Fold this sequence. Notes:
The complex is a heterodimer of chains A (134) and B (566). In chain A, strands 1-2-3-4-5-6 form a 6-stranded mixed beta sheet, with helices on one face. Chain A starts with a strand and ends in an 8-residue tail after the last strand. Chain A is built from 3 helices and 6 strands; from the N terminus they run βββαβαβαβ. Chain A has helices at residues 35-51, 69-87, 103-113; strands spanning 4-6, 14-18, 23-30, 58-67, 92-99, 120-126. Chain A has one domain: Transcription Regulator spoIIAA (2-Layer Sandwich). Chain B folds into 4 domains: 4-89 and 199-241, no CATH class; 116-197, no CATH class; 260-318; 320-565, 4-Layer Sandwich (Phosphatase 2c, domain 1). In chain B, a hairpin with a 7-residue loop joins β15 (498-499) and β16 (507-508). Chain B is 47% helix and 18% strand. Chain B has 566 residues and is of the alpha+beta class. Chains A and B meet through α2 and α3 of A and β16 and α11 of B.
Amino acid sequence: MDRIQIPATDRSPAVDFDFSAGLLRISGESYPEDAAAFFGPLLQSLRAYLGQGGENAVTVEVALAYFNSSSAKALMNLFMALEDAAAEGRPVAIRWFYAEGDDTIQEAGEDFASDFSYGSFDLVTAPQAEEAHR
Amino acid sequence: MTDAPDLALDPVPRRNRSLRGGGPLRGDDFVALAGFADVAGEATETGMRPGALRGAARGRDLDSLAHTLFLRIYPVIAVVVLATQIGTAWVNYTDAMRLYGERATLLATLTARAIGRPDWAANPEIYRPQVQALALDPAFRFARLTDAAGAPVMTIGETPRTRSWDTVQTVAELTVAGEPAPVGTLTLGLSTEALRGNAEKQALMALGASLILMMAFVLTLHANVRRHVLTPLKRLLAAMREVEHKRWVSVDLGGAARASNEIDVISSAFNRMVDGLRSGDEARTLLAQLERAHRDLEGANRLVMESIGYARRIQTSVLPDRLALSEAGVEVAVLWEPLHLVGGDYFWLEQFDDLSIVVVADCTGHGVPGAFITLIVATALDRILHERGLRSPAEILAALDGMVRTQLRQDGRGSDSDDGLDCGICLWNRADGTLRFAGAGLSLTAIGPGGAVRIKGGRRGIGYPRHGETMPDVADVTVPVEPGQVFYLMTDGICDQMGNPQGGGRRLLGHRGVTDILLDVRDRPLSAQVTALDDALTAYRGGEARRDDMTLVAFRPDPEAVRSAG
């Protein structure tokens, strides 16, 4: 599958889905006017990629400094697809970066993590969440 | 000289337009004489391509340049040539005259020696052959013998009456050895007519040479001035006229018309100037387009803003009276600040006998889409409270969930909507002093003498299509109330303030940050607290923009009611 690379804007995050390496990254801030329009194609690609099957591990790194509730819903949909793949035996690891002391992002990560039972969902503190991927 | 009229087109037609007068009138001349030259010139220039400039300019002023050059330079050259020729001729002439004189003296002296005898005058005829021999000289004019007394003895040839300018005359004395006085004289005259012929020839040659020189000079000057000066200048002039009419042409002096260095430099400077003017003109045009587009945008924006302003009036009219709970002694302060005039945040306050209800909802989206959802919520809540008469926060949430999902057709009938809301509901019963709370994605913060407490609601919001999931059970939480305690329901737009206050990196203020601010101002009246919070949030953001709608409802149950119930 083709790699998806979308540069960050002030309202949407940087996206780098390197399917061949099994490494998917989202970083920056996410509050697009229409979150469904932004995340919809990403979700479709992810589902198509997971639908191909295969045994290689999938690592997802999320380093968001802010996201609105519709982005949270879209992230939830991405994570549900990953959790479903993990339930079928695919090794899935999600690394959730948050700035040290940023309770909002940390709590959001904890909320997401509670839905994972097959895949691993790790919260990773970084001095600066945004810098984690730069 | 036939080129001269072409070269010397004079700016003033009356001044006979050639160097030497004459020359036929050409097409251009008629136009110029009629005073139409410039008009005709401009008429032919319209729509001209840069490559078609050659010869297009009239450039009459330029033609007078060659004329002036010729008039200034040629006389000097002509005078120098003539003076040189005349000087040479004069030297030759005087040289030849000296040679003639010497020849005459030699011949006369030789003959005088031969004749010089003491008694020669007695029988002069003896010496006639010797004197006649002098006539063998081709330049011979005359010879005359005189005796000692000066009386003529013999004359051969034609003696001129006066001294003629074309005759060299010499006198030799007849001397005899032993006699002190000469015994006679021999006068010899030689003609210098040949010399005069030579001089005339030379003068004609000088004149001819200067004429040929003049022609050569005129032709060379014409060709060179035209090629190196006039043609480039005419192109330059034509280009300047184009530029006057804002047609941005540049001058190309390559090819046949090789300009002199100076004109090349001027042309380059001109081209640079045209480039500058063109880009300036383009910038002005772009700016004008931009201004027009800006005006259009402004108009469109004004329409949208007017429309949204109207929408805001509608949205605020469905919001409750801020004093709705004051009868029950509940102090209330509200911060309702949509990001874009209208938004997805909604709150409700209503008093039912002893029950005071406080609802805060944060619908997905903000702006107009968010506002649509708030209207659905407002309608549903009205029905839940007034038609169904529900008085339990959890029940109200569950009912709201069902109604919103039905309204948005998220209940399996096929819908594009992936919308919902976070909601927190408080019910204060002043009769028994209980506060019940239920939240879906929204928490309740309580600040009292004992500090701050956060009571989290359910994690999931309500609404949203569910794919086989059931709504998690949300139960009422009974919150203990202390006298003077203040409760805050807020949407996440309050906590999600992006800022970089200590320069330690951008991050969200978070719930804890908001609680800290509220703790700082806990002793103030609620309205002052809300104002202080708003200011603190603005300060935290610094240069960052707000990210979301924000709503906070603070309420303080009547302390007397709390005490009497406790």
